[in-house]
Design a protein that fits this description.
five-stranded mixed sheet; five-stranded antiparallel sheet; single chain
């Protein structure tokens, strides 16, 4: 995996080369686009050109420094830093790189300063010809005290992934998980203190602007994820999961941090999102859990009884038939579109095969729950994001 991270290689985790996940992923790797070419590039490099006002601290992703130092390189290193050019090696349509910058002169004369960035990417196309793509962006840089301007332009999805990548990179380079978790908590407290609105000594009045409201939720699930809690996982599994988070798109990375949970009922057999909480595991529901690496369909206790009674074969229960079939169709679509191909699991509430364990491990507990496995007391998401220490216990 370390070699793949340095050269843009591809990794797939499976028990053997005969495993269905490996075989399907291997076939999908060689899919071609509408022009008949592979959806891959090789020998890729990326050069960053910047205007004054900011310096690049580094990037986190699958890459290697080419040690090109110029005036745009910051002395503060984050990830692969100390350079303005990187070797990416192999790339595909989902290859993503998190860039970190140091603002050196945000608001001269009190006015926001525009920063111009150019990402010059060169790569060998599968047609055998070298291509160059130049992406130019203009960003307004605000001073740290300009909270209104920062709040207006805050992207909580991307910010959560940026923070997660840095946290995971720190664990991969030798820092203790506990130290990284504490720094995440301090960061979240500072963010709430700076951007939250509240009356002094009255926690019930606390609220975050809408641009920040999901961010604490993402941090909660990051703390509970396999990236920060590695108990019960092999070193190979931990390394693979962390490596994939450093590569994938924002949308895919958010699925790794906070899996999507969808519910199907007989009254509403189409998918509807529900909270990633234990309370969502209802006996009358079918749940669809997408963790990026696994796609799980979970049947509630009553659904299992109805299925065993073959109600879905009765024309009078067409809605129940749709409740069983629709999540499978949705799962097949997700699996067909994703690389590496996720593992597909169907399980029942209370089954003795152990398959239900994965679904339960990713949903938050119903309330305060002491977890000796995690080595800490864990509470549900609503309590964690509560502004009141009394509520959090």
């Amino acid at each position: 995996v370390h070699g793949a991270e340095k050269t843009g290689g591809i990794t797939v985790m499976a028990d053997s080369s005969s495993n269905a996940v490996f075989k399907k992923s291997f076939i999908k790797l060689f899919e071609r686009n509408s022009t008949g070419h592979l959806k891959l590039g090789s020998s890729a490099t990326m050069n960053l050109v910047m205007s004054k006002g900011a310096k690049v601290s580094g990037i986190i992703g699958h890459c290697t420094s080419l040690c090109k130092k110029d005036s745009s390189v910051s002395g503060t290193i984050i990830g692969v830093g100390g350079t303005s050019e990187w070797y990416l090696g192999g790339i595909d349509v989902d290859s993503t790189y998190a860039c970190y910058f140091e603002i050196t002169n945000a608001t001269p004369n009190g006015s926001p300063l525009p920063i111009y960035l150019q990402f010059v990417t060169k790569y060998l196309h599968s047609s055998g010809r070298f291509r160059m793509r130049v992406t130019t962006a203009k960003k307004m840089m605000a001073a740290g005290e300009d909270l209104k301007e920062i709040s207006k332009n805050f992207d909580q999805d991307t910010s959560a992934v940026i923070v997660a990548r840095q946290a995971v990179y720190r664990t991969m380079t030798g820092e203790e998980n506990a130290d990284v978790l504490r720094s995440l908590d301090r960061m979240l407290i500072k963010l709430a203190a700076r951007f939250g609105e509240y009356k002094k000594d009255d926690p019930s009045t606390f609220k975050l602007p809408k641009q920040f409201q999901l961010f604490p939720q993402f941090m909660y699930h990051l703390r509970r994820s396999q990236y920060m809690q590695t108990f019960g996982e092999s070193p190979d599994e931990s390394t693979y999961y962390r490596s994939m988070l450093l590569k994938e798109t924002v949308g895919n990375s958010l699925l790794m941090i906070q899996p999507a949970l969808l519910q199907y009922t007989a009254d509403e057999p189409t998918a509807s999102p529900v909270l990633l909480e234990m309370e969502s595991m209802k006996p009358n529901a079918v749940l669809f859990l997408d963790t990026f690496f696994q796609v799980v369909i979970w049947h509630g206790e009553n659904v299992v009884k109805w299925r065993e009674a073959k109600y879905h074969e009765n024309p009078d229960y067409i809605n129940f038939k749709a409740q069983l079939e629709t999540p499978i169709e949705d799962a097949q679509y997700v699996i067909s579109e994703r690389f590496p191909v996720p593992k597909f699991i169907i399980c029942d509430q209370g089954d003795d095969t152990g398959q239900e364990r994965l679904a339960k491990s990713r949903v938050a507990p119903a309330g305060r729950a002491s977890s000796g496995l995690m080595g800490a007391d864990y509470i549900n998401c609503l309590l964690y994001t509560s502004p009141s220490p009394r509520d959090r216990g």
